[in-house]
């Protein structure tokens, strides 16, 4: 018994890792281990012998077991200490960067314009991009034979065979939202309607899909003077330049009377566009007093109500404000361009924080 005790306690003390320890456990107190075998011999002993050998063997088994547990704990502690000394983590290191996208200049500028007009009491209205011939043209006082229809370079949807109507169109301007908003909300009304519009045209300042913001203000006594003030206020706020110069040019639109086109003074030095200086003018919007026929088409009584409307090219003013020379690049989805001209997602436009980057 003493030999067994010494043999296994020494083996346990000398074990350097858990697998050696397990091997010692199996050979000592496992089912077929030496101590177990000795216990089996108890059966062959006399009752007197058994009375002393039994408890002694049990005590030995317990002793070996305790030694095993203590050693096991010791080994685990040692392993942990070793790890604590060799491994360490600098929790002050910056995390891995996640690739972050940018806000497209069109989205940014749309938000900026919306914030400025919201401050002047305009809410946002929307309409569909596939529009009926009536909303896009007739209701805006552009009857089928009107020459303005040709100027719009319209994309037509295909017409189902046997259909007894004009084909739908990709809206050529945001003006049909005027009709939809007035039909739904009546007068008085003050809305802007940002969105995509489509025309078959392609060069440095034209793409077949582009963006407009429609403005509409109808009340009892709204005049051209209000229109001029609102637009000047908008341009000053948007470009954040005191010397922005606007030019109101008498013009003609079927849906307004009188009508004015508004240009902004700019220069095109070395392919870079600058606002407020130079000898060039860039047309940014069309405007005027809403034609009585347009009010009537939307169910608003022209004897009682009047007001102004305007249609502003978002892409144009984005090019002007951020010095982007070629409109086509806006829609190329070139990541280098998007990273360069895009905005950080937390760079939210608001009137208090200033609208610039
Ligand atoms: N719809 C016109 C266009 O796309 C722009 C426009 C001009 C809108 C005058 C208006 C307006 O609301 O009054 O060319």
Short structural summary:
The protein has helices at 2-14, 18-29, 34-41, 47-86, 105-119, 133-136, 148-151, 176-185, 224-239, 292-297, 314-322, 335-341; strands at residues 123-124, 130-131, 169-170, 189-198, 209-219, 246-253, 256-267, 274-275, 280-290, 306-313. It has 357 residues and is of the alpha+beta class.
The tally of structural domains comes to 2
Query: Helix tally?
Result: 12
Distance between the termini: 87 Å
Bound molecules: 3,4-dihydroxyphenylalanine
**Order of H and E elements:** HHHHHEEHHEHEEHEEEEHEHH
Descriptive notes:
It contains twelve helices and ten strands. It has helices at 2-14, 18-29, 34-41, 47-86, 105-119, 133-136, 148-151, 176-185, 224-239, 292-297, 314-322, 335-341, and strands at 123-124, 130-131, 169-170, 189-198, 209-219, 246-253, 256-267, 274-275, 280-290, 306-313. The chain has 357 residues and is of the alpha+beta class. The termini are far apart. Strands 1, 4, 5, 6, 7, 8, 9 and 10 form an eight-stranded mixed sheet that branches. A two-stranded antiparallel ribbon has the order 2-3. The mean pLDDT is 90. It has two domains: 2-86; 105-341, BirA Bifunctional Protein, domain 2 (2-Layer Sandwich), CATH 3.30.930. The longest helix has 40 residues, at 47-86. It binds 3,4-dihydroxyphenylalanine. The site of 3,4-dihydroxyphenylalanine has 11 residues, from strand 9 and strand 10.
């Amino acid at each position: 018994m003493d030999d067994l005790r010494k043999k296994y306690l020494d083996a346990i003390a000398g074990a350097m890792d858990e697998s050696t320890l397990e091997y010692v456990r199996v050979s000592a107190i496992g089912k077929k281990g030496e101590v177990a075998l000795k216990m089996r011999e108890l059966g062959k002993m006399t009752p007197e012998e058994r009375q002393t050998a039994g408890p002694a063997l049990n005590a030995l088994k317990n002793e070996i077991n305790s030694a095993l547990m203590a050693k096991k704990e010791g080994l685990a502690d040692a392993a942990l200490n070793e790890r604590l000394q060799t491994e360490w983590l600098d929790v002050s290191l910056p995390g891995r960067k996640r690739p972050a996208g940018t806000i497209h200049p069109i989205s940014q500028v749309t938000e900026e314009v919306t914030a400025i007009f919201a401050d002047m009491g305009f809410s946002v209205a929307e309409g569909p991009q596939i529009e009926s011939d009536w909303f896009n043209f007739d209701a805006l006082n552009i009857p089928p034979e009107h020459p303005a229809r040709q100027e719009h370079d319209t994309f037509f949807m295909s017409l189902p065979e046997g259909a007894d109507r004009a084909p739908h169109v990709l809206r050529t301007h945001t003006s049909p939202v005027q009709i939809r908003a007035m039909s739904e909300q009546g007068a008085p009304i003050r809305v802007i309607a940002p969105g995509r519009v489509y025309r078959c045209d392609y060069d440095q300042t034209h793409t077949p899909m582009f963006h407009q913001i429609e403005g509409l203000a109808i009340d009892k006594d709204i005049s051209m003077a209000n229109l001029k003030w609102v637009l000047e206020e908008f341009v000053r706020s948007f470009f954040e330049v005191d010397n922005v110069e606007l030019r109101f040019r008498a013009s003609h639109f079927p849906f307004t009377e009188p009508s004015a086109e508004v240009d902004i003074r700019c220069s095109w030095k070395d392919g870079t566009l600058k606002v407020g200086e130079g000898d060039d003018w860039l047309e940014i919007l069309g405007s005027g007093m809403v034609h009585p026929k347009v009010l009537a088409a939307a169910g608003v009584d022209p004897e009682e109500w009047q007001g102004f409307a305007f249609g502003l090219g978002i892409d144009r003013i984005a090019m002007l404000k951020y010095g982007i020379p070629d409109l086509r690049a806006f829609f190329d989805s070139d990541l280098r361009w998007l990273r360069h001209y895009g905005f950080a997602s937390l760079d939210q436009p608001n009137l208090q924080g200033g609208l610039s980057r």
